[in-house]
Design goal:
The protein is mainly alpha-helical. It has three domains: 41 residues, no CATH class; 28 residues; 63 residues, no CATH class. It is built from eight helices and two strands. The relative contact order is 0.08. The structure holds FE2/S2 (inorganic) cluster (FES).
């Protein structure tokens, strides 16, 4: 236990009565050092409620509860274009209201860039029924 500084570069002299008092002070500091209390505590990563696995499970449970509470809103909030932060609901609404049939048309009516998300937009277009836009929109365009 390295609690007593006795090498040649030491900061305390242990000669005579003053040296003995200093020696006892150093022993006292070593025995009642706060580090011993900290060493007896369990490490934070061993606490069951505080480890990465418990946090990941809690996060997944929260997401599952959110989906279960309102699956349609969660589905529509799913990002399609991550570069421009455009969600599925925005793209579906644009496709429905304007009768869009191509990625280029979706790009023009939404903020989606259609670069890395082109395939996802094509998949959405493929799954949505082709509909003509409302007559008022056609007249306005
Ligand atoms: S996600 Fe990159 S352009 Fe849409």
């Amino acid at each position: 236990m390295p609690w007593l500084d006795i090498n040649q570069e030491r900061y305390h002299a242990y000669m005579g009565y003053v040296g003995m008092v200093k020696l006892v002070e150093e022993i006292d500091k070593a025995l009642f050092n706060p580090i011993w209390e900290q060493l007896r505590r369990p490490v934070p990563w061993d606490e069951v409620a505080n480890n990465w696995r418990a946090k990941a499970i809690a996060q997944m449970d929260a997401q599952a509860a959110e989906v279960a509470a309102d699956p349609e809103t969660t589905r529509r909030a799913k990002k399609v274009c991550f570069c421009k932060e455009v969600d599925l609901g925005t793209i579906e609404d644009a496709i429905r209201s304007h009768g869009l049939t191509s990625v280029e048309a979706v790009r023009q009516h939404t903020n989606a860039f259609g670069g890395c998300c082109k395939r996802r937009i094509e998949d959405i277009l493929a799954t949505m029924p082709v509909s003509s836009p409302p007559a008022m929109l056609q007249a306005a365009e």
